[in-house]
Amino acid sequence: MNEKNDSDEENETEEVEEVVEEKVTARLKEDAVIVGAEDAQKIYERGFFGEIQEDGTLKLSPVESLLLVERNRLEVLNDNNEVLNFQALTKIFMKYNPNLWLKYLVYRDLRSRGYVVRSGYGGNIDFRLYPRGAKLGTDTSKSLIYIVSEGAPIGLEELDRVTRLAVSTRKRLTMAVVNRQGEVTYYQVSQVSI
CB 3.0–4.6 Å: which of 31, 74, 107, 124 could bond 63 by disulfide? Predict the structure, then answer.
């Protein structure tokens, strides 16, 4: 016979207190967001977002800023001290980069899978991908991410160029294809000599 007393039921229904992360305030500066020095480490250490500047501030890229706003961890103010919501911020950033939405969808997907994602280094390489749990400064990126919209043609010369770049840096090239519904599919690309 299973007997339960009131204290057992109380323990079963006791809710676990949720840790609510404090929202950090930042400022919009053209096509980036700047987090003050007092909060810079807080954001950087909780996911390796942005780049620490010489003055101790943290510079966030548009995709990093959008993700943090969407996750309710960041509040972005404009020059008039007005809070910019996700849509307003997206509209501003898209003036600088019309392909921002594709880049954001891939960035958000990779981050939701637990990867550390940093900006690519030119040559149309959008991101460098670090393994899950990587420590920046210690671990190196393993893959380069090249983003393509489904149905958009890619020239063979462009594909050869980015493949050679990946080979020369000893990294895997991953093509992130974004379909019309915003879903992302990843393909490993390798170099073949004919």
Answer: 107
Buried residues in 120-134 as b, exposed as e (16+ CB within 10 A): beeeebbbbbbeeeb
Q: Can you tell me the distance from the alpha carbon of 70 to that of 75, in angstroms, rounded to the nearest whole number? A: 10
Q: Taking the model in full, what pTM does it have?
A: 0.83
pLDDT tens digits, one per residue of 3-24:
545 444 444 444 434 445 678 9
Q: What is the DSSP string of 13-58?
A: HPPPPPPPPPPEEEEEETTEEEE-HHHHHHHHHTT--SEE-TTS-E
- Tokens representing residue 77 in the block: 């103010």
Question: Domains of the chain by range and CATH?
Answer: 22-97 (3.40.1170.20), 99-194 (3.40.1350.150)
89 vs 28: CA distance, rounded Å: 9
Q: Give the torsion sign (CA, 136, 73, 35, 84).
A: positive
